[in-house]
Automatic annotation (TrEMBL):
One of its GO terms (cellular component) is nucleus. This is Inhibitor of apoptosis 2. GO terms for biological process: negative regulation of apoptotic process; positive regulation of protein ubiquitination; regulation of cell cycle. InterPro entries: BIR_rpt (IPR001370), IAP (IPR050784).
């Protein structure tokens, strides 16, 4: 199932060389003068021309949450952490989705967290059942239509602390023994347990899976 949903995850492609990858520190990049400065909210908002889901989530809310449109279906990308979120659904709140999928994003830390804390309704949408989206991490140099990319670029594992099978196994201490998918199988496949229901995530590509079927 990991291979089907995230075929380009480096761990899926070559687990032998992706099990213990150190954190990769990339040098700061200077935006090209010919490339839009998406760290500006007005520039992000201007990217949502022909946005297909205005009735579900507005361009204003998405731009305010740090996202700009990749103009490929409903794919959006954070201008600060380069996280990509798609498959937006009714009642999704961009700030909350951004924080859930990319909690270490500098924009989440500096802007979204204080905004949620100061909100009169900080719990709005936070307690509803989490919807795991198709989430990818792609590098600064990749922009435009995702359909033209062919591959997904990764800047090393998202969770280096779960880079070994042993560390992932330790996360399954409260995993239900009634599930067919055992901690050993899931850990070997690159997953660690998030401690809620049967939700797991890949340590490398950060893809989340849940609602496991017996034949998965």
């Amino acid at each position: 199932r990991h291979r089907v949903l995230s075929p380009q995850c480096p761990f899926v492609l070559n687990p032998d060389t992706s099990g213990n990858i150190p954190a990769v520190v990339l040098p700061p990049t200077t935006p090209s003068s010919s490339f839009p400065n998406y760290k500006n909210e007005e520039v992000r908002l201007s990217s949502f021309v022909d946005w297909p889901k205005s009735d579900i989530v507005t361009p204003e809310d998405l731009a305010r949450a740090g996202f700009y449109s990749l103009r490929s279906s409903d794919n959006t990308k954070c201008a600060f952490c380069q996280g990509v979120v798609r498959a937006w659904e009714p009642n999704d709140i961009p700030d909350i989705e951004h924080k859930r999928h990319f909690p270490l994003c500098p924009f989440v830390a500096s802007t979204i967290n204080p905004r949620l804390e100061n909100s009169q309704n900080p719990g709005q949408g936070a307690n509803r059942e989490a919807t795991f989206k198709n989430v990818n991490i792609i590098g600064n140099s990749v922009n435009g239509n995702l359909g033209e990319l062919g591959v997904q670029k990764h800047n090393g594992p998202k969770r280096v602390d779960f880079g070994t099978v042993e560390s992932r196994l330790r996360s399954f201490t409260t995993w239900s023994p009634h599930l067919i998918q055992t901690p050993d199988i899931l850990a070997q496949a690159g997953f660690y347990y998030e401690g809620l229901g049967d939700q797991v995530r890949c340590f490398h590509c950060d893809g989340g899976l849940r609602n496991w079927d017996p034949d998965d």
